[in-house]
Each structure stands twice: as structure tokens, then as C-alpha cells.
Amino acid sequence: MKAGLFSKRKKQTDYEKIIHLNDDRINVLLLGNSGCGKSTLINAVLGREEAETGTGTAVTKNIEVYEDANLPFRMIDTVGYEYGLFKQYRIKNDLNRFSEESVRKKDVQKLIHIIWYCIDGTSKRIDQEAMNYISSVTKSWKGIPVIFVITKSYSETEIAENRRMAEEAVAVYNKKHRHNPINVQDVIPVVAKEYRVNETTVIPPSGLDTLLLRTNELTPKAKRLADEAIRSIDIKIKNDRANLIITTAAAASAAIGAVPIAVPDSTVLIPIQSRMIKELTKAYDLQEDELNRDISKKVLQIGATTIAGKAIVKALKQVPVLNVAASLVDAAVAGTVTFVLGKTSAMIFERVYTGEFDPLSMPVDEELKRIFDDLMPDITEQLTGFLEETKGSLTLNQIKDFFESLKS
């Protein structure tokens, strides 16, 4: 039997291309409120005026990338988020798409390795809502190192107060969110541009060298964490695609099941299920080959058994309010079997893709049956609960909505 893309060596090589996209330079994401000094900081790092004129590479209306051949990192700037929920939501969506695109297109310029969270030192406050915002932005990049950059700290007293303010805000937040803390590595006061207090007093730039040195020190760790995040994002993209394929096939199967036909439903459903499994192999970047077809055949054999369908019918009969046409019961059964087959396929294909399961050396039949048997009771239980909520007024569209609700 030919192994094709399922051979261990090839599989690992393809996967390495996904999880090691880093080049020599890292990417630093800048967050902060409008007027906090991000543009001034960017210009100070670049050594020229660019940020105010918007001459960076525009990615979206909310994101620009700044880089220089002499810098060991790029800077990804976001517009000031303020505290407006709509604006925060829009920027977070842009950043999520930005992150997923970096992995999907293998674009090293769009990875995120470190965050500089810029705080106006004259504001004397760090709201916990702002901490929530940082956490939500870093959701895709778990554990990413964060440096709090306190801008406009013009005196030793201000520097000490702002540092204490930042450390207290982080401590309060992380105590409350122990399972998802913000990985703040340092608090660094910076005066990015000379500030004239009056005709005789000028405060020179300071702190920039410290910020750049600390960023450089965190780079190796940031790259390792980015590798882990890339893997997570890559799998999420594939799982999202797989869920869409599965729910579409389940809805199509339900529609078939709702139509009285003279031949067994399983015969009619096989083309839908076969196409679903074929699309799932593509979703996980697995080439169609002899071994792949063998796995698909085994999945379909599980679905062709009457045991699964009978188990669902038996469970549905226990629903006290269920009083609907037999065709709708058939629709629920057909859609559920297809859905569970799809989930079974997706779970095994994901593990093959990541190298966690090797069908050349592990018992495929046993593993497929184990996954299917684990999933079926849970999905059936959710289906019966859903039917109870409909209070007997079941429709085909409601059945389709049920499968949509199972995407996650």
C-alpha cells in the first residue's frame, strides 16, 4: 500500500512549513489609546518621521506595518482603540483576520511575537477594561510577551508612580484571571521625543535603548511561543473549514432523510457523505491516495450500519413531547449520522495532519470506531434536548439549525 502524504517523513516536512514561519526578524504589535504616543515612539525607533504621515504599509484601515532594514523587528501599529465597544470590536476582528492570514498565507510579516502596550504616563490610570482588551487581542497568541511602555513620564516621581500603577493593574487582573493571565514581562518608561517644559527646561529622550534591549532579550522566547500559537491558529483555520463542510453535509442529509423514498436512506446518503469526507481530506491538506481512500471507506462502513440509526430512533422515542411526522424523525437520524461521521473523519484527519496518529502503524478501524462511539451518545443527547425545547413543533429548518449550533 502506498503511503503518499501519509508517510511520516513527508507529513512532518509539510507540518514544519506551517509551524516554523519565523524569519530573522520578529514583529512587535503596538496597542494603546489615541494620543498615547505610539506614533512618536515608532518614529523614534525608525529615526525618521513616518507614523504621523501614515507611510507605513497599510494592511487595513486599522493596521499599518513599519520596518527598516537596520531594525531586527517590524512594528505593527493599530489605531487607538479608545473605550468604544464598536471600535474595539472592529480592531479585534481586523487583528484576528490579520493573525489567521499570516498562517494561512505563510506570511512572516504578519505574525505577532511581542506586544508593546503604550500608556500615556500623564493619564495616571490603567483601566481594567483596557486589560480585558489586551487579553482579548492576545487570545490567538497565547502567552505572548507584553511590555508596558509608559510614555510621557517626565520626572523620577512620575516614573516611579507610573511603574507602580502598571504593576498593580497587572497584579489585580492576573489574580482575577489566573487561567488566562497577561504575560507582562516588563514595565519601561520612555520619553521618545525631546519635551520642552519651558524656555529653560528641556527633558531629553530616554528609555528607548532599554526598550529595544529588552525586546531583543525576549525575542528567542517570543519565537518559541509564536511557533505554538501558529500551530493553534493553523488547526483552528482547518477546524473552522471542516465544521462548515460537516454542517453543510448534515443539513443536506437531513433534507434527503425528510423525503420518503423507496430505497434505503444509507444508499442515498453515501454520495453526500463520500463528498464530505473527500472535502475534509483537502481541508486538512491531505492528498487523496490509497491509504486516504481506505480510511474514508472505513468511515463510511461505520455509518452504513443500522446500529447508529436505531440508537438515535430509540433515544428520540424517549422525548415526551415529540409528535412529528416520521419523515422528520428520519431527517434527524440521517443528519445526525452524517454529522458524527464528519466529526469522526475530521478528528482522525487532524491527528494524521499533525503527526499524532500514524495510520501506517496504528489500528485505524479501532480508532475510528472509538471516536464514533464516543461522539454518538453525546450528539444524540444534544439532539433529544433540542427536540424537547421545540415542544413538538419540529421543522426541517430547525433540524438544520441544530447542526449549525454544533459547529464548535
Explain this structure:
With 408 residues, the chain is an alpha/beta fold. The protein has two domains: 24-206, 3-Layer(aba) Sandwich (Rossmann fold), CATH 3.40.50.300; 234-405, no CATH class. Helix content is 57%, strand content 11%. The chain has twelve helices and nine strands. The strands form two sheets. The chain has a seven-stranded mixed sheet, sandwiched between helices. Strands 8-9 form a two-stranded antiparallel ribbon. Strand 5 (114-120), helix 4 (128-137) and strand 6 form a beta-alpha-beta unit. It starts with 7 loop residues before the first helix and ends with a helix.
Q: How far is the first residue's CA from the last residue's CA?
A: 35 Å
Question: Can you identify the CATH superfamily of the largest domain?
Answer: P-loop containing nucleotide triphosphate hydrolases
The best one-word shape is: elongated
| Low-pLDDT residue spans | 1-16
Major sheet attributes: 7 strands, mixed
CATH architecture classification name of the largest domain: 3-Layer(aba) Sandwich
Q: Which percent bin holds the helix content?
A: 55-70%
DSSP strand tally = 9
Rg, alpha carbons: 27 Å
Give me the secondary-structure category: alpha/beta
Helical stretch tally: 12
Strand arrangement in the largest pleated sheet: 2-3-4-1-5-6-7
> Can you tell me the CATH topology of the largest domain?
Rossmann fold
User: Into which percentage range does the β-strand content fall?
Assistant: 5-15%
The H/E string reads HEHEEEHEHEHEEEHHHHHHH
- The CATH class of the largest domain, by name, is Alpha Beta
Number of domains: 2
| Averaged pLDDT | 77
